[in-house]
Amino acid sequence: MPIVMPKLPNLWVEGGSQSGKTEKIIQCFGDWTNQDFAHHPNPQAASQQVLVLTVDAQHRRQLSDRLTMVAHGKYPVTAVTPLSFFRDEVRLFWTLLVKNLGIKAQFPLLLRVENEQELASFLWRDRLEMQTLAMEGIGRDRLVRRLLDLFLLAAYGGRDISEIPAILNAGMETNLEVEADQISEQWQEVGEALSEWRSYCWEKGLLTYGIITDLFGKHLLPNLQYQRQLKQRFKYILVDRADEMPAIACDLCKFLITNHAQGLFTFNPDGSARLGLGADPAYWQELKSECQVEILPPAPDNLGSEIATDIVELVSEQGLRFTEPYDNIHSIESVSRAKLFRNVAETISKAIALGTVQANEIAIIAPGLDNIANYAIAEILKNKQIHVHPLNDQRPLSTSAQVRSLITLLALVYPKLGKLVSRDHIAEMLVVLTEAIDPVRAGLLADYCFVPHPDKPHLLASETYNQWNRLGYAATQAYEHLRTWIDQQALQDAPLLFIDRAIQVFFKSRKLSYEDTVTLKELIETAQYYWQLGFRLDQESEEILENFIQMIRKGTVTANPYSPNLPQDGVVLATIIQYRMAQLSHRWQFWLDASSDLWLQGGAASLFGAPLFLKHWNGEIWNTELENEANMQRLQKLIRDLLSRTGDRLYLCHSELSTNGQLQNGVLIPLIEVSSPIDAT
Question: Whole-structure pTM over 0.85, yes or no?
Answer without folding.
Answer: yes
